[in-house]
Amino acid sequence: MLKAIPLFPLDTVLFPGGPLRLRIFEQRYLDLVRDCARDGRAFGVCLILEGREAGEPALPAAVGTTARITDFYTLPDGLLGISAEGGERFQVASTRVRDNGLVYGEVRFWPDEPAVAVPPEHGLLATILERLLDEIGGVFAKVERTRYDDASWVGFRLAETLPLAQPEKQQLLQMTDPLQRLARIQHYLPRFQRA
């Protein structure tokens, strides 16, 4: 079943459960934030394939993630800042641009991934993630130890934390098998090893 949601094309990939902080200044996105906050709705975040974040409507990737606003604040420059959290993944069937320049997508939501334990051959990835998150701090620094046993959670957190190119992150988002995602991330690891 298709559902129409507002889209916010960005130069970043949002993963389920992942944090997102945005600086809002264009009127179309101020409208989006107002409407979503008023109705408790989520908006869709898609990686920009062509175009830019500001100005003319950009061409979004066909797979994205919903974002639900969790906090508002005023930035030092006086602009609106929001914090949001990634939710469900979706596939865009079609888009249309409203007269205010806001892109709406007819989307089909993907089911949640099945709960799969991190297998022994990918145990190193959970250890690396735990060390990274301890070092970085932030929202995931103090999560329950059991989260590191969840293949989807570990894969999504590594995908957003490692310095991968945005198209690589998009590929990881589009994968539907958590173990295949971990295998792909393990394939990327050698490039991050110190000489």
Provide the CATH architecture of the largest domain.
Roll
Give Rg in angstroms: 17 Å
Kindly state the number of beta strands: 7
What general form does the structure show?
globular
**Named CATH topology of the largest domain:** Archaeosine Trna-guanine Transglycosylase, Chain: A, domain 4
Corresponding CATH superfamily of the largest domain: LON domain-like
In order across it, which strands form the biggest sheet? 1-3-5-6-7
Number of helices: 5
The portion of residues assigned to helices is 25-40%
Low-confidence blocks of residues? none
Helix and strand element order: EEHEEEEEHHHH
Protein name: LON peptidase substrate-binding domain-containing protein
Pfam family, one: LON_substr_bdg
InterPro entries: Lon_prtase_N, Lon_prtase_N_sf, PUA-like_sf
Domain Lon N-terminal: 2-193
Q: What does this entry look like structurally?
A:
- The protein has about 200 residues and is an alpha+beta fold.
- The chain has two domains: about 5-110, Roll (Archaeosine Trna-guanine Transglycosylase, Chain: A, domain 4); about 120-190, LON domain-like fold.
- Helices cover about 30% and strands about 30% of the residues.
- The chain has five helices and seven strands; from the N terminus they run E-E-H-E-E-E-E-E-H-H-H-H.
- A five-stranded mixed β-barrel has the order 1-3-5-6-7.
- A hairpin with an 8-residue loop joins strand 3 and strand 4.
- Helix 2 crosses helix 3 and helix 3 (about 150-160) runs parallel beside helix 5 (about 180-190).
- It is globular and about 50 Å long.
- This is LON peptidase substrate-binding domain-containing protein.
- Pfam families: LON_substr_bdg.
- InterPro entries: Lon_prtase_N (IPR003111), Lon_prtase_N_sf (IPR046336), PUA-like_sf (IPR015947).
